[in-house]
Amino acid sequence: MIYIDKLTIDKIINQAKEEFPNECCGFLSGTKSEGIINVKKSYPLTNLDKSSEHFSMDPKEQFNTIKIIRGHDMLFIGNYHSHPYTPSRPSEEDIRLAYDPKIIYGILSLEKEEPVFNLFKINKDGVLKLEYKTI
User: Fold this and answer.
1) Is 78 left (phi over 0), alpha (psi -120 to 50) or beta?
2) Are 115 and 108 in contact, with CB atoms under 8 Å apart?
3) What residue ranges define each of the domains in the chain, with the CATH number in brackets?
4) Mean pLDDT of 99-119
5) pLDDT in tens, 63-107
6) DSSP readout, 71-103?
7) Cα–Cα distance between 62 and 114 in angstroms, integer?
């Protein structure tokens, strides 16, 4: 089971709206224990591409953020990005660039009036939408 703090989702939504019409991106951190994942915090990162269709994260910023996550005794759980004009599902590019089958990929859609946030596992076998509960 996956649990996500509501404040974390709200923070991602606010970031996406602030960076609109470009995609926003960032990391997710939290804890894992006996099949339970608790996503506790999001870390906004810079979309170097400044594009509404794709994103690139600054490697130096990624490295520094991982150090911060570890410094808070948390684990890197995955990453997230927004889709300003398309649904909350991985694009062909998202699937092609999914480099780590062990992490979670979050996608926030601003396509409709109400934002939609979904989590996915992406690996060589395909895409699996993950269920989560907001706490």
Assistant:
1) left
2) yes
3) 2-134 (3.40.140.10)
4) 96
5) 999 999 999 999 999 999 999 999 999 999 999 999 899 999 999
6) HTT-EEEEEEEEESSS-SS--HHHHHT---TTS
7) 29
Task: Find out whether 116 and 9 touch, Cβ atoms under 8 Å.
Answer: no
Q: Does the pLDDT of residue 20 top 90, yes or no?
A: yes
**Phi then psi for 61, rounded to 5 degrees?**
-65, -40
Whole-structure pTM value: 0.95
Burial of 20 (0-12, 13-18, 19+ CB in 10 A): middle
- Which residues on adjacent β-strands are paired with residue 123? 126
Per-residue pLDDT of 36-50, as tens digits, reads 999 999 999 999 999
Residue 120 pLDDT greater than 90, yes or no: yes
Q: What is the C-alpha to C-alpha distance for residues 12 and 6, in angstroms, rounded to an integer?
A: 10
d(CA 68, CA 46): 16
DSSP strands (E only) in the chain:
2-4, 25-33, 36-45, 75-83, 104-109, 116-123, 126-130, 133-134
